[in-house]
Design a protein that fits this description.
The chain is built from nine helices and seven strands; from the N terminus they run αααααβββαβαβαββα. The protein has 237 residues and is of the alpha/beta class. Helix 1 crosses helix 2.
């Protein structure tokens, strides 16, 4: 087989791989949409079922504020006043939907040492507001890269504020120590009920917001090499 034919076959193979990936991605999106519709239809048809509040509490940050408000208004009073119902109401009241270009939304929370800290207490620094949990495998996978970035830029007015979705204090603190996460940590130990997560509309973790020295959000959900480049750009500006 000559070289030209081999190159053509290799190119065709790569095209098939890309098409297969795109097709799988479309299938995943369609499956997700079908699942969301099924959940929404269930809530609408079962306003007096506690499971409706449970679904809505789990999916509120994915559905967004307007749809969540609409579905919440359909629930029976007893369901709205349930634990999950009150969590949905908390999201509706807190969600600020901060976007790139907006000034950050402040919040306060306790550190692992029991001290109360506000985001606004961190002044004159580039801040990576990182949402994570010790039980989240994807989050833990990112930690070595965050350690490297923190070590590289901490002398250049860079800080990480990590907001944990943990519920177990011991697991949270143990992971911080074992993984050498030498930056600022806060949590309410409330998982998806975390106040900051509800304010910022976190639907999955890990997620983050990169904030410049003036308090402006400049990027979201940045990782790895791109995160390093974004930080370096802010330092050099």
């Amino acid at each position: 087989m000559n070289l030209k034919i081999m190159k053509i076959l290799r190119a065709l193979f790569l095209i098939l791989l890309v098409l297969q990936f795109c097709n799988c991605d479309n299938i995943r999106k369609k499956t997700t949409l079908v699942k969301h519709k099924k959940h929404i239809d269930f809530i609408k048809s079962n306003p007096d079922n506690i499971e409706s509040a449970h679904i809505l509490a789990a999916m509120s940050t994915t559905y967004g504020k307007e749809l969540t408000k609409e579905l919440f208004s359909l629930l029976a009073d007893s369901i709205r006043n349930s634990e999950d119902g009150l969590l949905v109401l908390k999201y509706i009241n807190l969600f600020e939907n901060p976007q790139i270009g907006d000034f950050y939304t402040d919040f306060k929370m306790q550190t692992q040492n029991g001290d109360t800290l506000r985001l606004s207490n961190i002044k004159g620094k580039i801040i990576l507001l990182e949402f994570w949990a010790s039980w989240c495998k994807s989050c833990v996978y990112q930690i070595p890269n965050l350690v490297e970035i923190h070590d590289k830029f901490q002398e250049n007015d860079f800080e990480i504020l990590a907001v944990s979705y943990d519920e177990d204090n011991d697991s949270w603190v143990k992971t911080i120590k074992e993984k050498n996460m030498d930056w600022i940590h806060v949590s309410e130990l409330k998982s998806i009920g975390n106040t900051a997560g509800l304010i910022y509309g976190i639907s999955s973790i890990p997620d983050n917001f990169l904030i410049d020295k003036n308090g402006i959000i400049v990027a979201r959900n940045v990782k790895g090499e791109r995160l390093e480049k974004e930080i370096a750009k802010l330092i050099n500006d």
